[in-house]
Amino acid sequence: MSESLQNARRRIEELRTQIAEYNYQYYVQDAPTVPDAQYDRDMQELIALEKAHPQLQSASSPSQKVGGQALSAFEQVTHEVPMLSLDNAFDETTLLAFEKRVSDRLKDTRVLHFSCEPKLDGLAVSILYENGQLVRAATRGDGQVGENITANVRTIANVPLSLRGTNWPERVEVRGEVFMPKKGFEKLNEQQKQAGAKVFANPRNAAAGSLRQLDSKITAKRPLMFYAYSLGLVSPSDFSLPSLHSQRLETLAQWGIPLCPDIDTAKGAKGCLDYYQLILTKRDNLPYDIDGVVFKVNDIELQQQLGFVARAPRWAIAQKFPAQEEVTRLLDVEFQVGRTGAITPVARLEPVFVGGVTVSNATLHNQDEIERLGVKVGDYVIIRRAGDVIPQVVSVVEVKRNGAERDIVFPSTCPVCDSNVEKLADEAVARCTGGLICAAQRKQALKHFASRKAFDIDGLGDKLVEQLVDADLVHSPADFFTLTVEALIGLERMAEKSAVKLLNALEASKTTTLAKFLYALGIREVGEATAANLAQHFTTLNAIRSANLEDLVAVSDVGEIVATHIHNFFNEDHNIEVIEALINVGIHWPDIEKKSAGESLPLEGQTCVITGTLSTMGRSDAKAKLQLLGAKVAGSVSKNTDFLVAGEKAGSKLTKAQDLNVAVWDEDALVAFLAEHE
Ligand SMILES: NC(=O)c1ccc[n+]([C@@H]2O[C@H](COP(=O)([O-])OP(=O)(O)OC[C@H]3O[C@@H](n4cnc5c(N)ncnc54)[C@H](O)[C@@H]3O)[C@@H](O)[C@H]2O)c1
Ligand SMILES: [Zn+2]
Questions:
Q1: Which of 6, 140, 155, 665 sits CB 3.0–4.6 Å from 669 for a disulfide?
Q2: Which of 119, 121, 325, 382 to mutate to test the pocket of ligand 1 (most atoms within 8 A of CB)?
Q3: Rounded (10°) CA dihedral 236, 237, 239, 244
Q4: Which residues bind Zn(2+) (predicted)?
Q5: Using one digit for the tens of pLDDT, what is the confidence trace for 179-197?
Q6: Residues of the domain holding 548
Q7: What CATH number does the domain containing 194 carry?
Q8: How many separate domains does the chain show?
Q9: Full 3-state SS string of 559-616
């Protein structure tokens, strides 16, 4: 045996063993270990080697068989008409070669007509109807013997249990794909995550795992759907059916069988390529996952002349889309700090072509996700990039581990500003507590500081804040107050007049209130109302700074989480420096008179609802002001509502309030009440 033949034999053996293992994981365990793209490459390599060395061909090679195997846990079903697989095309040339092969074999030069169908990514199912009633459903299995999954298929909402009309064969087998629509898949995974149960890698897996359940009650809860794409057994065999495949699909539709709405017909390989392009552009917006399109010679008589090879019909081909999942190596993990301080682990990858682009980063979301995936630095991972969605790490290829992989360590301090990282027990996201001093959060924090409900600095909008930060003029809020006319007029579109105006506005804003000051600091989850409650409760900044958690939760509206945020904020030296710098540039506020214990707020114990558009203030303003006066602000009107504030264009809430005889305040009444109690 020549050396090259020996090498080919060795490689063929290797590939056959490998593919058999992939098949087992994919078809039997419903848990693939490699992306389809890797599987397809190995399979194509095997096919090419076997073609080049015909003496090494074997009927037991995975290239000659329909993958899959019936689980013994299910009753077995022998298919009267075998359920085959499809040949694959990965490019235009292969598709043109397919057309030529078909024409040559038919010895017919006329243009061929094709049925064009999205290749749904689920699993093939055969459903048998006898006298119009669903009597049996089976998986494809190895093509000859499948699994009896009747009870499970009966739970799929769009599978009819009986056929419509009366004009159907006595026994007829409908074949099609059971799949899980994208939305349902996302929802299911969300539920699984929450329940701490297994998360499915992709919709195909979820569909297979859901359908091959021994308990059909579980299947019933899964959002599965079925679309038919062909007929299997028809008995009596002389039952009159249309002569074109596309018309037969129409017949199925008349019997009440669901079809994929994106099926079409085309003339010649050229028409097929147009269809391919069309579906490719629609792919991301389709409600179901597809991995390509299928072209079938439309004339049934021609199909019969063409016949089959071992594992697939000669009259059909699946043209695959570019893979959305690929395998690559995770080289490192970096931690990015977002505008709000959220710390996101980002996987640095060995660049890989997936979803039509070269990907070298993928998000790992948060620590929980890293733990769920069990991923380590150095691992081979499956990356998914579908549409414009940020690339995701789907799973780890554990069989490729060599022991040199390292655990991913989450930083305890911010990689940008070195402040402590805060992660609350019931939150997935870890955050930098650096707030005002963290460069990553600076722009956001400064915009918030200058905003209307905070320091309310006239002329200091978001754009200008960005300019000031980019020009290195402002790093922390106190820097606003040391700006000079000279520095400002160096900025684009800033004339002396507006610079002077801005400095005046800054000067005026130095007189503020403790509530506004607290709000401006941008402490997490401390909104206007909470800031006001804190000010009212503690009356001085020092008292708030030295408050412990217990003191803080005593404030109305402050729960444990908010208390923790406040406490952590004031425990950060950087933040104290920011506060002191502000006081040093002259920020001040009037003392607060503490309400005596007996004195109650004017709206204490009252519940109100706000609806419609207010012209003098926003709804959130009104809400905060009413809360400060002691009112509870609810979202809907009920018999417990004391009064409704109704602005312009108030709708159903107003009607309901009137029905329930609830007092209604118009905007004037609200403004008057607020003025009276200022
Ligand atoms: N990742 C892995 O480990 C792994 C392992 C095995 C198989 N696979 C994937 O599965 C493929 C092989 O599986 P296969 O044998 O089921 O072949 P296939 O998926 O390439 O094609 C045949 C199947 O297509 C489906 N199909 C969808 N729409 C159809 C339509 N309109 N008309 C006809 N059939 C339609 C049917 O289920 C049919 O059985 C591989 O190419 C690979 O992508 C992956
Ligand atoms: Zn930081």
A1: 665
A2: 119
A3: 150
A4: 414, 417, 438
A5: 999 999 999 999 998 888 8
A6: 514-585
A7: 3.30.470.30
A8: 6
A9: CHHHHHHHHHHHCCHHHHHHHHHHHHCCCECCCCCCCCCCCCCCCCCCEEEEECECCC
